[in-house]
Write a structure and sequence with these properties.
Blueprint (H helix, E strand, L loop, with lengths): L3 E2 L4 E3 L1 H4 L15 H10 L5 H4 L7 H15 L2 E3 L6 E9 L2 E13 L8 E2 L6 H14 L1 E2 L3 E5 L3 H11 L6 E4 L5 E4 L5 H10 L5 E5 L1 H18 L9 E8 L6 E3 L2 E6 L4 H7 L2 E6 L7 H13 L7 E5 L6 E6 L7 H4 L2 H12 L2 E7 L2 H6 L5 E5 L5 H9 L10 E3 L9 E2 L10
Helix pairs in contact: 4-5, 5-8, 6-7
Length: about 425
């Protein structure tokens, strides 16, 4: 099913480009323009000079010129041998240390109808258009999409074997204090073994639905011009692959902060279709205590759908809403808290605006008088995969895979001047 290949990675020459921590960046869709500008001002070779080009500096065309000039000047270098890149992240959640293992490889782009690559969220045309124009101008992929595969012991064994042959290429801490390490695996037999291990796998997109959709459109356009040649790199997308049973695969919920229209009549009417459980909190309980209490209350009934509720006018108190009756839904989606929130709650409310946050403590702290926080539990990984298997998609911003992978550890050219050697 899934076809993965090694590739001639393009990596920074740290002697010319600067320190790695000043060159890599978070994914483009989680940073503001101000954060982007600050990173590029700190080091003009930061990856955002390519991934998020300055509109005032020539935009996509300028990004292409910059990419080519960096290659010419040796700021970045294309490696002589194709490789697969083991990539691990060490991080903390709730005071506990986790380690997430993955690999960066090329994955052959497949039509959605084949069900070899399976989405779990919808995409928006405005985002894909921006990514398409950048890809077309630069003929390069500056970041990876993030995909999951169902447990495969062979992949784990081969990756661990490859990592044991040499130390990491670099170790760098991100802005949240998470430690990222990248290896290079070029041994041909191990690569062939990994290629064969993925032949029976479907892949599930965790992050990067828009970039995959962009790559699919680009592939189709390039095939119309250059044909179906399987050795052309535009048939592939650079992908970070993680086992669904990896202990470090962490999914956090994305809570909703709703700004209500004048009056709360729709809110009070909606609340009547739920069984409301008041959470008793000590006087003076802060946002951290409220968030912890909500989490604990929802954990009491893990099989029952429910939503935490905090009003901006009563931030030291909270409720859990349990549906009084079956609220419907397709079977694979029916068990999701976010489904009843999006399809029942938010459609019934008079909302002025909706924003999103994976940090419940900050969200509670920032609530204003006319706002309400809807607190969600994370969707289990297995449930996310089952939904994708059923050909369904979850509501927008249903998942937050943590921590985010870095942009910039390795780049990939999709120029027609380059060719791939299928195994």
């Amino acid at each position: 099913m899934a076809i993965i290949l090694p590739f001639h990675g393009i990596r920074y020459d740290l002697n010319r480009a600067g320190a790695m921590e000043d060159l890599v960046a978070p994914p483009y869709d989680v940073v503001t323009r101000e954060q982007r500008d600050r990173l590029v001002a700190q080091n003009p070779h930061n990856i955002f000079a390519l991934e998020l080009p300055d509109d005032n500096g020539g935009g996509y065309r300028h990004a292409a010129d910059t990419f080519n000039s960096w290659l010419d000047e040796g700021i970045i270098k294309r490696e002589d041998e194709p490789a697969i890149y083991p990539y691990e992240i060490e991080f903390k959640v709730g005071g506990k240390v986790f380690l997430r293992h993955g690999i960066i490889a090329l994955v052959r782009i497949e039509d959605w109808e084949s069900h070899i690559i399976r989405p779990h969220e919808k995409t928006f045309n405005s985002v894909t258009e921006d990514r398409y124009r950048l890809l077309k101008a630069t003929e390069a992929q500056f970041s990876q999409i993030f995909a999951i595969y169902r447990h495969n012991e062979s992949v784990l064994r081969l990756v661990l074997q490859g990592k044991s042959m040499a130390g990491p290429l670099f170790e760098v801490n991100d802005q949240s204090g998470n430690t990222h390490r990248l290896w290079r695996l070029a041994e041909k037999e191990l690569i062939r073994g990994l290629h064969n291990a993925f032949l029976g796998q479907a892949l599930y997109i965790a992050d990067g639905h828009h970039r995959y959709t962009t790559a699919l459109k680009y592939r189709n356009d390039m095939r119309a011009t250059f044909g179906m040649d399987p050795s052309m790199p535009y048939n592939y997308i650079m992908t970070y692959l993680v086992d669904a049973e990896d202990p470090g695969l962490m999914v956090l919920p994305t809570h909703r902060i709703v700004t209500m229209e004048e009056g709360w009549a729709s809110f009070e009417a909606l609340a009547r279709i739920f069984e409301k459980e008041d959470i008793v909190l000590p006087e003076g309980t802060g946002p951290e205590g409220v968030a912890s209490a909500l989490s604990n209350a929802l954990l009491v009934y893990p099989e029952r759908r429910g939503i935490g509720v905090v009003r901006g006018s009563k931030k030291d108190s909270a409720q859990v809403w349990w549906p009084k009756q079956d609220l419907g839904g397709t079977s694979a989606l029916a068990g999701l808290d976010v489904f009843i929130l999006e399809e029942v709650v938010l459609k019934a409310l008079s909302c002025k605006a909706i924003s999103y946050s994976s940090d419940a403590v900050s969200a509670i702290q920032g609530l204003s008088e006319g706002q309400v926080l809807f607190y969600l539990r994370a969707a289990p990984v297995g449930q996310i995969l089952d939904i994708a298997d059923a050909g369904l998609t979850m509501p927008h911003k249903s998942t937050f895979f943590y921590p985010k992978i870095l942009t910039g550890p390795v780049l990939n050219s999709v120029s027609t001047k380059d060719t791939l050697n299928p195994l």
